Amino acid sequence: MKKYLVIFIIMIFSINTFARTVNFSIISMGALNGEYKKLDSLKIAIDTITKEKEMQYDNVIKINVGNNMTEYLEKNDIMLNFYKTTNFNFNFLGKQEFLWRDKIDPTQIKMSTLNIIAKDVLPYQLMKMEDYIVCVVGITNIYEEDIKGTLSYKRELQNLMYMLEDNVDFLFVVTDLEREENVSIIQDFPQITGLFESRLNLYDFGVEKINNTYLIPTYGISVLDFKYDEQEDNQSIDKIGFKLKTATLLKRENILKPEKFGYDRDFRNYINWTDVRIKNENSLIIGYTDNTFNPYEIYLSDEVPFLDDLADKLMKSYKTDAVIFPKKSLLKGIKKGLYTVAEVNEMFTKEKFIILNLNYKELNSLMNKAAENRGNESYFYISGLGKSRLKENYKILSFENLLEDYKIDKEKYEVENIGIREYMIKK
């Protein structure tokens, strides 16, 4: 009897000893929106944390959650250099990267997202972690009209699930969609281990667990420690015929002051050089105006000469009947005389142009609603109609900001490749 008891104990011990376990860390950061001043300390911080975690776990994945690029080529250059020297395992192509893709050298770094088809864009990336495979996939928040190669992300995510079958153990998703949409993704695809939100969250309330999936906001540098134990975490999600493993989040730490880790000297020199390049670019004189303009004039005046003059140029360039200037698109005024690149960038928001195709009744309804909103931020100023004959259909140039306050059917507008800032600088 004692002999059998000893054998049983040895068997139990052996099972526990050889149970498959894995511990890993994920370091994520992003949503910088062109802010490059702290890249020298961010690099040192990420390098230091990576070394510490590699000594502890061996398995470390570095995720760049994207939305770091801007209209400035100089800022994008230093960002790309940061990506390469920090050696991220996954670089998300967010909405900012997509909007300013003509200001980014795609040969410098491979970016990833599932719902955009492009030559230099990877749909997802796989990483080996001991005997396990990790898949990281991105979903970009873009207008369907922005690109001909855009795809329905839920359909593509479903297709990816079928394609992965039993070849992937852990699945992480990076998106810059709204919180409500991210929660919907988690509910529809419970196979996801964790979802990273690529939006700067200044009111971070911590990681939220929805079913078996972790919803992870972006707040500084996030350091997450995960654990998978075959016996303890033997729950698996089976929704479409195959299973992915669940992992337990042991700890999350946010690094909000990377400067405490020190500074990278080479990157500090790069930052100083970028400062000079941007200063030189901003000081370029690109135009002259006969009229002083205050954005609040549109509440008070029936005619705004500066906007009327600008509308004349825009209507000629885009062959439209009128231009709608949403108040939200106008940030600062401008004085009569010469103006620079910096003044244009300070005057207008960075949203793209849109072309509206409206019939007379639709345009009249839009103008009536604007009249009701006069005096608040959702008001808009329209220029050019006085020069157009009464027509059945109108082609109107405006800005994406208009869509925030006025519901316009998707089939009624198209998004252009540039916005007012780029137009004025190039013209």
What does this entry look like structurally?
The chain has a 6-stranded mixed beta sheet with strand order 6-7-8-9-11-10, covered by helices on one side. The relative contact order is 0.11. The protein has helices at 2-17, 39-57, 73-86, 95-99, 153-164, 179-188, 265-282, 297-300, 305-318, 341-347, 360-372, 402-405, 420-426, and strands spanning 21-29, 60-64, 90-91, 111-112, 121-122, 124-129, 132-139, 170-175, 194-200, 208-210, 213-218, 221-229, 236-238, 243-245, 248-255, 285-289, 322-326, 337-340, 352-359, 380-383, 393-399, 413-419. Mean pLDDT is 85; it is low at 1-19 and 145-149. It folds into 2 domains: 18-276, Purple Acid Phosphatase, chain A, domain 2 (4-Layer Sandwich); 283-426, 5'-Nucleotidase, C-terminal domain (5'-nucleotidase,  domain 2, Alpha-Beta Complex). The protein is globular. Helix 2 runs parallel beside helix 3. It has 427 residues and is α/β, with parallel strands linked by helices. It comes from Hypnocyclicus thermotrophus. This is 2',3'-cyclic-nucleotide 2'-phosphodiesterase (5'-nucleotidase family).
Write a short abstract of this structure.
It comes from Hypnocyclicus thermotrophus. By secondary structure, the protein is α/β, with parallel strands linked by helices. 33% of the residues lie in helices and 28% in strands.
CATH architecture of the largest domain: 4-Layer Sandwich
Structural class: alpha/beta
Choose one word for the global shape.
globular
Q: Total strand count, please?
A: 22
Predict the CATH topology of the largest domain: Purple Acid Phosphatase, chain A, domain 2
Main beta sheet: 6 strands, mixed
Q: Percent of residues in helical segments?
A: 25-40%
Distance between the termini: 94 Å
What is the highest CATH level, the class of the largest domain? Answer: Alpha Beta
* Count of distinct structural domains: 2
| Helical stretch tally | 13
Organism: Hypnocyclicus thermotrophus
Protein name: 2',3'-cyclic-nucleotide 2'-phosphodiesterase (5'-nucleotidase family)
